Amino acid sequence: MLKGKSKIELFDAATGARLLEQHDSNLVTDALGIIANCRDKTGLLRWWIPGSPSNSTGIGEYGEYLTGCPARAMMPLYKRALGGVLLWDGNIAEDPSVVIPPAGIGEVGHAGGEYGGENIYRGSYNTNESGEISGGYRHVWDFDTDKANGVIKCLSLTSFHGGNVGYHGCYDTAAFPMYNRGYFYGNENRYDDASAFGRIAFKGDTETTARMFYIRKMEDGSLRVYRRNGTEVWYLKAPDPAKVSLSVNQITCTDRVTLPVTPIDNRSCIYVYKGQIHEVAKTAVTRLRHRIFSLDGEQLSDKTVNLSFNMSSGSYYNPAVYRDGYYYCFTHIDTDVVKADENGNEISRIQILKAITDEVWSITVNEFNGEILFAINVQGSGSSATHIPYTLNSKDVLSTLGCNSFSPVVAHLNSPMYSQYVQTDDPCSPFLFFSDGYFCSIIPVVNVGYLATINNLQSPITKTSAQTMKITYEIYDE
Predict the structure, then answer these.
(1) Could you tell me the pTM of the whole model?
(2) Each residue of 8-29: b (16+ CB within 10 Å) or e?
(3) Bridge partners of residue 470, in order along the sequence
(4) Which among 34, 31, 70 is positioned nearest to 50, based on CA atoms?
(5) Cis (ω within 30 of 0) for the bond into 76?
(6) Which of 470, 440, 380, 473 is nearest to 142 (CA)?
(7) How far apart are CA 409 and CA 377, in angstroms?
(8) H or E segment to which residue 286 belongs
(9) If DSSP codes are grouped into helix, strand and coil, which group holds residue 171?
(10) What tens digit of pLDDT does each residue of 393-440 get?
(11) Pairing state of beta strands 326-330 and 320-323?
(12) Which of 148, 36, 145 minimizes the C-alpha distance to 81?
């Protein structure tokens, strides 16, 4: 049984005197078992066979998260799967099932490998003091005076890669994004044969101009796969993954059920939040329309929102999303996301770290922690399309998971216009699903910033710019 304990020390930067030493212990979460065994609550990953390197291209060792078995990418366990640390400004419920940060939590700092850059959140690995101990491993990280300043209430071990970039991304060009990246190649019939691409294909729906946005787990274990185009919203019925035999990443769907929902247009944003289907669309330069439906398509509300600011004119996609009383609007006029209240009044602007050279097509809100997930097409079209994935967390902190480079994240043979992050009934999971544009299939990826442990400190620790900090974390089998 894995156990862990931490020691945090603060030192006076001027004299070197130790000012504080605090010891704490942790809870080990289910994250490692979920990733190693490729399992989720929907049962989808039972069908998943990761793509082979001949069909996908990763970046160095990080490519293993994309091209091979996640369990292999986690080995050796103590160095790779548990080789990073995340520092939080609030306590996290000590529940083994909590494997990604909950809503309202903020990241104070993070650390993985050795580091000497300007990132004010990232510490550096202390190779000299780290190493094997009886039955486990000791990790030591140092934080200089300009790193991880603030109030620390909780620590979490994460993967080595997750420690390098933190949960909410980074601005270091030398660091890698937390989600997999690489190219996917296939043939024209990917909705019928996904075995070579590390995807899960839903066989039986050949609609090629539709987005998948939600996979619902029913009480009998069966699945409903929700898709939409410019004129219809429907779901496909798929069997309970536990009751059918494996068939090279394919799930044969039995029926297609069309809901009584006609999208406002093909550019509207449709997603599921808190058990309801939301549709938000720009209907004029200063106007949104927001409709809410049950999961069976019954209309619950229809609201027009007059904005105090301008969206772009013309045929640009201007996706907007509603979350907890606020609208987040991509104007396409600049690189800002505008946050507006229920009545459309601008509250603030959140700057995207990179200029948008093309468009944002769709947005998804995570049911568990309210994170807004979206991808920006930054160059080209068709097979040269490049995506940068972003998140906007519940504290309105915007991050690019691709850091400061336009390195490819996911490139499709066809237009990414119909791609979207796909929600499931397992919103607290280290796995994320990304729909494959034209075809009815999804690509599972691993969020390498998972919570492997939860270590709530007995007393909060405040680090200032007059102090350095050392974190010693021992993880061992007992």
Answers:
(1) 0.86
(2) bbbbeeeeeeeeeeeebebbbb
(3) 9, 142
(4) 70
(5) yes
(6) 470
(7) 10
(8) none
(9) coil
(10) 777 776 655 433 333 344 443 445 667 788 999 999 888 787 765 668
(11) antiparallel
(12) 36
One DSSP character per residue, 336-381 reads EEEEE-TT--EEEEEE-SS--SS-EEEEEE-TTT--EEEEEEEE-S
Pairing between β-strand 421-424 and β-strand 136-143 as defined by DSSP bridges: unpaired
Tell me the per-residue pLDDT of 135-188, one tens digit each, with 9 for 90 and over.
999 999 999 999 999 999 999 999 887 888 787 655 443 333 333 322 222 222
d(CA 25, CA 405): 38
Please state, in angstroms and as integers, the Cα–Cα distance from residue 198 to each residue in 229, 397, 420, following that order: 25, 31, 17
**Enclosing H/E stretch for 127:** none
Which amino acid makes up residue 199? Answer: R
CA 379 – CA 388 distance, rounded (Å): 10
- Measured CA angle at 309 (ends 307, 310), to 5 deg: 100
* H or E element at residue 2: strand 2-12
Amino acid at 172: D
- For residue 211, the SS3 value is strand
Overall residue count recorded for the chain in this entry? 478
3, amino acid identity:
K
Which residues touch 187 (CB under 8 Å, ≥6 apart)? 193
- CA distances (Å), origin 303, targets 16, 96, 335: 61, 40, 27
Give residue 298's identity as a one-letter amino acid code.
Answer: E
Token readout for 346 is 């601008």
Q: What is each CA distance from 60 to 12, 22, 80, in whole angstroms?
A: 39, 38, 14
Q: Say how many C-beta atoms besides its own lie within 10 A of residue 418's C-beta.
A: 24
| Neighbouring residues of 248: CB distance < 8 A, sequence distance ≥ 6 | 49, 193, 194, 195
Please say whether the beta carbons of 76 and 342 come within 8 A. Answer: no
Nearest by Cα to 29 from 153, 132, 158: 158
Please answer whether residues 387 and 381 qualify as being in contact, where contact means their C-beta atoms are separated by less than 8 angstroms. no
